[in-house]
Amino acid sequence: MSMSGLSEKELADALRRATPEPGTNVGRAGQVRARAGRLRSRRRATAAGAVVCTVAAVVLAVGLPSWLASPGRQPRAVAPAASASPSGHWVACSPGVDGTFPCGPGAVAAAIRKPLNLPTLAPGASCPVSPTRTFPHGGAGFSGSFQALGPGPFYMAGPGSTPLQLRPDRSSGWDEQKVIWVVDKTYGGPLLLRGGRIDAPGRLGFAHYIGAAHYSGGAGDGKAHRSLLYERAGFGADDRGTLDSFPSGVYIPPSGLPGCYAIQVDGVGFSETLVFRATGSPSAG
Question: Average pLDDT, whole number, for the chain?
Answer without folding.
Answer: 72
